[in-house]
Write a structure and sequence with these properties.
globular; 31% strand; AMP-binding enzyme C-terminal domain-containing protein; 321 residues; AMP-bd_C_sf; alpha+beta
């Protein structure tokens, strides 16, 4: 989707002249193991609207390795709900809804309606206890099409058994759940689907293993990265991770190398002002250095390994230690 919006953004007229017609596309499902990117989905729909693509045809879905089909935003349902949560409360694993435009508000678009036969519960990843509606927790799923395990040639399947056969520490302790490894929350929407029923919407916040513990709070990389990308037009991509309790920010520069030094104060200031964090290291690299997998997701841990092994070949590195 990102390649389409960037590469074809100025070619819609020529595509239309060549007879490209998307009016018969009924469903275009965005499948991702991450938080739905609201701005990208909207820009994709807006761009191809001129070619006949109906905005309702573009919908979101959430699936992961333990269950490929957890929820789906179908065309028969209402428009996906977007809620605004307090980013400061989210750092303490609490979900507090606020009005649009409120200070520190973060928009989250639902990943879709939970599919028939699928049960979702939000659990504490440490204690394995069920969480209340106002708390952020790990998404656990139970259904007939859950995966049963990983196939491995190393014979260590037992190491991953907890992912696929977990039980709650209290409450319903008999049901076997699969742990998705993603943090999120459930919220009953006020909207109804084609059958007239209200539905529970699932909101995915981020991956548990990529969340960063800093100053006793949980930060999600995508929030910091979004702030950094907005600071300068020459920053095309950004990825963050931690290294010995230091926050490392890697930015890709689309411009001349003398701009690299100018980016450092912009990056450190925006992270301090919006997230109250001090950046330990700023690394400016060429376009394409941040690894992206086949699903378009950043491989932050691979980037961290490359940074520690001094393999990034940076344009500029600033240490603030």
């Amino acid at each position: 989707m990102e390649l389409c919006t960037k590469g074809l953004g100025l070619q819609t007229d020529s595509l239309k002249a060549r007879g490209l017609d998307l009016s018969r596309v009924r469903t275009c499902v965005v499948v991702a193991e991450e938080r739905p990117r609201t701005a990208l989905t909207q820009s994709f729909s807006k761009l191809f609207k001129d070619l006949g693509l109906h905005p309702r045809a573009v919908s979101t879905s959430f699936g992961c390795r333990v269950n490929l089909a957890i929820c789906l935003q179908g065309t028969s349902g209402p428009d996906p709900t977007t809620v605004f949560v307090d980013m400061r409360a989210l750092r303490h694993d609490r979900v507090r809804l606020v009005e649009r435009g409120s200070p520190h508000s973060l928009p989250l678009m639902e990943s879709g309606k939970i599919l028939p036969g699928v049960r979702i519960i939000i659990a504490n990843p440490e204690t394995k206890g069920p969480m209340g509606e106002s708390h952020l927790g790990e998404i656990w799923v139970q259904s007939g099409h859950n995966s049963s395990g990983y196939f491995t040639v190393y014979g260590d399947e037992a190491l991953q058994s907890d992912h696929f056969n977990s039980r709650l520490s209290f409450g319903d302790t008999q049901t076997l759940w699969a742990r998705t490894g993603y943090l999120g929350f459930l919220r009953r929407t006020e909207l109804t689907d084609a059958s007239g029923e209200r539905h529970d919407a699932l909101y995915v916040v981020g991956a548990l293993e990529e969340a960063m513990e800093l100053r006793g709070m949980r930060y999600h990389p995508i929030d910091i990265e979004t702030s950094v990308i907005r600071t300068h037009k020459s920053i095309t991509e950004c990825a963050v991770f931690t290294w010995t309790n230091l926050l490392v920010v890697v930015v890709e520069l689309d411009g001349s190398e003398h701009e690299a030094l100018d980016l450092v104060p912009l990056v450190t200031n925006v992270v301090l002002e919006e997230h109250y964090l001090i950046v330990g290291v700023v690394v400016v690299v060429d376009i394409g250095v941040i690894p992206i997998n086949s699903r378009g997701e950043k491989q932050r841990m691979h980037l961290r390994d490359g940074f520690l092994a001094d393999q990034l070949d940076p344009i500029y590195v600033a240490y603030n230690m």
